[in-house]
Amino acid sequence: MPSIAQQIPNFNLKIVFLVHFIFISLSCMGFWSSNAYLFYNGILMFLLLWSIFNAQSQEPLQMAIVVNGTSIILDILLLILNFPSNNSVAGPKFSAAMAILHLLTRPMSTFVLIRNLEERGGNPGNISSMFTGTRTESYEDIDRTAAPQSSAQSGGYNFATAQPI
């Protein structure tokens, strides 16, 4: 009997989405964070949903990896600049603590996203060429014609391949 992870398509992405959704919801309960926190996390949620629904494409996963990695730095800056003061009530402190836990889960979710990208046909173990790799979709350039061979290269006229008039 197959496990639940094998029965549900994109199981790992759905777990990553659910974890981020819970932490973002809990982190936005306090009024300590600015709208920027909701903005870049909303973009991450959109990219995760896009990668769940478009299981063949690598682009949404690549962008989710970049946004999630950038969010680590943005979370640190936001926590440094807007952390609730000591005399504030428990609500903002709780939401800031959830933002810290969310920050700690981001490297793990980035690792899961990279593994999922590799399963979709990305370069395994080579993160630096993530955006320069070749596309997996077949593409035929119909505008490009074959270069004609000159008679100097073929050694003159070839009667075997000549077409009748």
Automatic annotation (TrEMBL):
Domain of life: Eukaryota
Transmembrane regions listed in the UniProt entry: 12-32, 38-56, 63-83
Subcellular location: Membrane
Keywords: Membrane, Transmembrane, Transmembrane helix
Gene Ontology CC entries for this record: membrane
Keyword check for Membrane: yes
SMART domains per record: AGTRAP
Any Pfam family: AGTRAP
Topological category with respect to the lipid bilayer: Multi-pass membrane protein
Protein name: Type-1 angiotensin II receptor-associated protein
Organism: Hypothenemus hampei
